[in-house]
Amino acid sequence: DQQVKQNSPSLSVQEGRISILNCDYTNSMFDYFLWYKKYPAEGPTFLISISSIKDKNEDGRFTVFLNKSAKHLSLHIVPSQPGDSAVYFCAASVEAAGNKLTFGGGTRVLVKP
Amino acid sequence: DTAVSQTPKYLVTQMGNDKSIKCEQNLGHDTMYWYKQDSKKFLKIMFSYNNKELIINETVPNRFSPKSPDKAHLNLHINSLELGDSAVYFCASSRISGNTIYFGEGSWLTVV
After folding, report:
1. pLDDT(B74) > 70
2. Do B41 and A93 touch (CB under 8 A)?
3. CA distance A109 to chain B (A)
4. Residue range A56-74: mean pLDDT, rounded
């Protein structure tokens, strides 16, 4: 039973354009959400997070949007750069239950020069 | 300086063997984890330790035994390795009250 889903396994975008990655979740208890970026043969690297009390969080080129009613979050990367080519994982947790992250299956992003 | 380091990075071993993966973090975190990335690329939590105390055990076979000698170390010992144990194992850490988890580079285990 996948509680966090990333329905697009891959995404290709031109350098300079916007990358939009989507993530859906089913567990309404989730109240903290994170995006991780992963290069081949490396561990996931924390990118940005959002608490359920917010609907948007921005950090430089990265913005995460949360729609609690739709149980949907998205990551926007603007402008996309070739170095952004990686696998992006969405993750969710219940803050009161400790730091147990439930991950989506990942979206592979390719930014073309 | 690597914040969360794990060794070995690559390990090929035969079925039935016992092996260990070591993990150390220098972030001063109180909580450490083991995650497994399976063949379908899903990352799933296996164990979580808070100050050397086990707090999460996600129905992992008891052939897997984590050991935390101190809060900066969390080692994973696997007995009687099976083909299905082949995966990438990630160690991670976080503050007790922190929501952000920091991962090591992963240990690629192949059981043949």
Report:
1. yes
2. no
3. 15
4. 97
Tell me the residues of chain B between 40 and 99 that have a Cβ less than 8 Å away from chain A: 40-45, 48, 50, 55-56, 90, 92, 94, 98-99
Residue A58 sits in a domain whose CATH number is 2.60.40.10
Contact between chains at A99 and B103 (C-beta distance less than 8 A): no
Nearest to A33 by CA among A3, A1, A77: A3
Which CATH number covers residue B91? 2.60.40.10
Instruction: For residue A34, count other CB atoms closer than 10 A to its CB.
Output: 22
- Facing residue for B41 by CB, picked from A93, A101, A105: A105
pLDDT at A55 over 80: yes
Scanning chain A, the segments in alpha helix (DSSP H) are: none
Over residues B29-49, the mean pLDDT reads 90
The stretch A51-62 carries a mean pLDDT of 96
Are the C-beta atoms of residues B10 and B63 closer than 8 Å to each other? no
